[in-house]
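Fold this sequence, please.
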Amino acid sequence: MSYLNGIDISKWQTTTPSLSGQSFVFVRATYALTTDPRYAKHTTIIRWSPGIVVGAYHFGVGFVPPVEQAQAFLAVAKGADLLALDLEKDSTETMTTAQARAFIAEVHKAGRKIGLYHSRSGFPSLGQDWNWIAQWGTTPPNMPWAFWQWQGSPLDRDMFNGDHTALRKLAQEVEMTPAAITDETLYFIDTPANAPLYDHDGLTKLSTLYTALTNRLSLYGVGAKRAIFVTTGGLRRVALVTPSAKRQALPADCTAAISAAVAPLNAKIAAAKDALVAVQVALAEATA
């Protein structure tokens, strides 16, 4: 069985811990209706470490309506790869299981999946999509789990029950099928806000657009998806986006100039195609 290492952090970590050897990090986004003051700092630093999946969790309370808590959480954590509800004892008023069920239902209503964090003792089934179980020690939980918090001090440490492919699939929430890049037609594309971006393997999630991407020249695409260049983790990468509209908007008098300008890039694209096809074949064989 393959396991991956990760940690979970919050405002109590004044500086972001070392990310060496970590495949994922959960960061507390909200408590009740309050944003964790270090959520933005932690997640920004984590995003600069390529390949690390970013999870966000909400600490549930009993003194605020659960629907309002879920809406506040979604507003803060909309860019996270994974979402989770932390259901544990609160010093003021603990969230009930009925409230937790309503919270999870509200997240589902927004079109997102969500996991549930709770201690192994009395772990409930409240409609969550996966389990994040706290059981400190070296023995894994004896029930289905996606994440296992096995240490609580001096730092919360976790494991994922699977390999990197399984983690990326869970983080994507929707499985995508890799496809070869075959279309080199020039297009301008419009893309809605919050559109997910994927590397050109169609699997690796890069980042999310928080504002609409409008009038962006797309050099090539795959099916309905178009490819653009984005910078993530300090690296310039090809990303796949699903445009809300695509149109050939190149006046005849500038087509030649644009073609000349993109010629060096097109040459690189052509050289990369064979390698990409080989990767996709390997992926297909691995998932067959």
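The first strand starts at residue 3 and ends at 9. Residues 174-179 have pLDDT under 50 and may be disordered.
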